[in-house]
Specification:
The chain is mainly alpha-helical. It is built from 2 helices and 2 strands; from the N terminus they run E-E-H-H.
Length: about 90
């Protein structure tokens, strides 16, 4: 099954990417409601999929590179965190 994403505009569906389906193809349309909790069956299905993932393992060199990058981001954030609020409050 192919999943397409669309947005409702003016009471019509606007598909993000036009499908290459033949004329007369039957489609099913459902509203995605992210505010509702998932049913237990869907939770179980997602957990089963996640259980198949292999853990990510880093070499010591990769861990050091990640730590160095995080430190760079932290220092940049600390240096520039007030840049966007200058002048907002008299």
């Amino acid at each position: 099954m192919t999943v397409m994403h669309a947005t409702v505009r003016g009471g019509r569906l606007v598909i993000d990417t036009p499908p290459d389906w033949p004329d007369g193809a039957t489609v099913e349309v459902r509203v995605v409601d992210d505010d509702q909790p998932l049913p237990p069956e869907e939770i179980a299905r997602r957990l089963a999929i996640m259980a198949t993932f292999e853990p990510v393992e880093f070499t010591p060199q990769e861990e050091a590179e990640i730590a160095a990058w995080r430190e760079q981001v932290k220092q940049y954030t600390l240096k520039h965190m007030n840049d966007g609020i200058e002048g907002l409050f008299p």
